[in-house]
Write a structure and sequence with these properties.
Layout: H1 5-17, E1 30-35, E2 38-48, E3 52-57, E4 66-69, E5 73-77, E6 88-93, E7 96-106, E8 109-114, E9 123-126, E10 130-134
Antiparallel strand pairs: 1-2, 1-5, 2-3, 3-4, 5-10, 6-7, 6-10, 7-8, 8-9
Length: 135
Amino acid sequence: MRRSFLVGLILALLAVTGIAGASHVAAGRDVMIEWGGSWWRGSVLAELPRQRVVVHYEGWSDDHDEIVAVQRVAFEAPLPAKLRRGDAVLVEWNGSFWPATVRYVEGDGTGIRYDGYGPEWDEEVPRSRLTRIRH
């Protein structure tokens, strides 16, 4: 895979100098990355000073690798055995995950409302489209 010039240069400098950050997000970890109001699966390529990391987005070319603040990085967390009304979840939609609140659970379906959107966007989704994050 081709690495963007800037990210390649940063990774090379880190390897030569041994400089790394002291964040809780170690290189090689699978993470969720916030971008544009939704969350995307990815991984940490390197830690940087000042609570920043270099990330790669799953399914995207290396040209999209970027440096982000660790506050934009979280870990995927398992769903509880039983979801309840009011639980906060992330709902997968076209490859990204959007914050939502559980409205109801019936059988295999979970009714959700996307945070910040009106009821016209409500939908019933299978559990397979739901996840949670933890920081």
